[in-house]
Design brief:
14 helices; 7 strands; 4-stranded parallel sheet; Rossmann fold; 248 residues; alpha/beta
Length: 248
C-alpha cells in the first residue's frame, strides 16, 4: 500500500503553548506509515473569528488553509475542535463562493488525529513504558465527542499501548474552556473546571489525558494554580514513540 501524504494542521494552541504535541503527532503518523508534511504557511482555522461573528475574517482564513493543504491525501490535527472547524468550511464560504468545491474536498479529508489513526489506518501503537502509563483517566473534549463522534478511538489506542484507563464519573462533561466561553463567562468556566478536577480526583488517577489542547491547558492551568499532583498530557504525548537519539 502506498504511503499517504498527510498534512499536519498544527493548531494555534499547539504552536504557541505545547509544540511537543505537534512533534509527537508527527512521530505517531510516521509510525503509522505516513509521510508527514507541515506547511509553513498554515495559520488559524478561523474558529475564533467564526464564533465571534467575523464572517469575512473566517472566510479569508478558510481560503488560506485550503491553499496551504492543497495536494495532500489527508489533513490531520491533534484537535477535534480545529478539525470540526475545517469541516465547516463549506458553510463558511457558502455555495456561491468560487472555492466552495475545494472546501468540500478539504472537509472530506480532514481528520482528528486519533480518529485518523484508528478509523482510517487501523493503527496500533507500540507498548508504552510502565512509567508513562500509571493511573490514567481520559477527558472527552466537547468538539471531538459531539461534533466528530470521537470517544472510542483514543481509548482503543491507549489500550493497544497497554495503558488501562480508569474512567472518571464526568468524562464527557465540559471542562469549562469552550474557546471564547471561558473569556466571556469566567466565573461559570472556573466552576466547571473545578468540577472536572473533583471528578479526576475521585477517579484516583495521577495522569489526565485528553485529545484537545484547549481542554488540556484549561485543566492543567487550574491544577497548577491549586497545586494538584495530577499531570496532564495530550494523548499524542503519551502514545508517540520516543524521538530518535540521532535526530533527523
Amino acid at each position: 500500500m502506498a504511503r499517504r501524504r498527510v498534512g499536519l494542521f498544527v493548531t494555534c494552541l499547539v504552536d504557541f503553548f505545547r509544540p511537543e504535541v505537534g512533534f509527537a503527532s508527527i512521530r505517531l503518523l510516521e509510525a503509522a506509515g505516513c509521510d508527514v508534511v507541515v506547511p509553513e504557511v498554515q495559520t488559524c482555522c478561523g474558529q475564533p473569528a467564526w464564533n465571534s461573528g467575523d464572517r469575512q475574517g473566517a472566510e479569508a482564513l478558510a481560503v488560506a488553509v485550503i491553499d496551504a493543504f492543497t495536494g495532500l491525501d489527508a489533513v490531520v490535527a491533534p484537535s477535534g475542535s480545529c478539525i470540526g472547524m475545517l469541516r465547516q468550511f463549506p458553510a463558511v464560504l457558502g455555495s456561491a463562493h468560487a472555492r466552495h468545491d475545494e472546501a468540500v474536498a478539504l472537509a472530506a479529508r480532514a481528520f482528528e488525529l486519533t480518529s485518523f489513526l484508528v478509523d482510517e489506518l487501523s493503527f496500533e501503537p507500540a507498548p508504552v513504558q510502565a512509567s508513562s502509563a500509571s493511573a490514567v483517566t481520559y477527558h472527552d473534549a466537547c468538539s471531538g465527542l459531539r461534533e466528530l463522534g470521537i470517544q472510542a478511538q483514543p481509548r482503543a489506542l491507549l489500550a493497544a499501548a497497554g495503558i488501562a484507563v480508569t474512567e472518571m464519573d464526568a468524562a464527557t462533561v465540559c471542562c469549562g474552556f469552550g474557546g471564547t466561553f471561558c473569556v466571556k463567562y469566567p466565573e461559570i468556566s472556573g466552576g466547571m473546571v473545578d468540577d472536572k478536577l473533583a471528578s479526576i480526583e475521585r477517579s484516583g488517577a495521577d495522569t489526565l489525558v485528553t485529545g484537545d489542547l484547549g481542554c488540556l491547558l484549561n485543566i492543567e492551568g487550574r491544577l497548577a494554580r491549586l497545586g494538584g499532583p495530577v499531570r496532564a498530557l495530550h494523548v499524542a504525548e503519551i502514545l508517540a514513540p520516543e524521538e530518535s537519539k540521532g535526530g533527523k
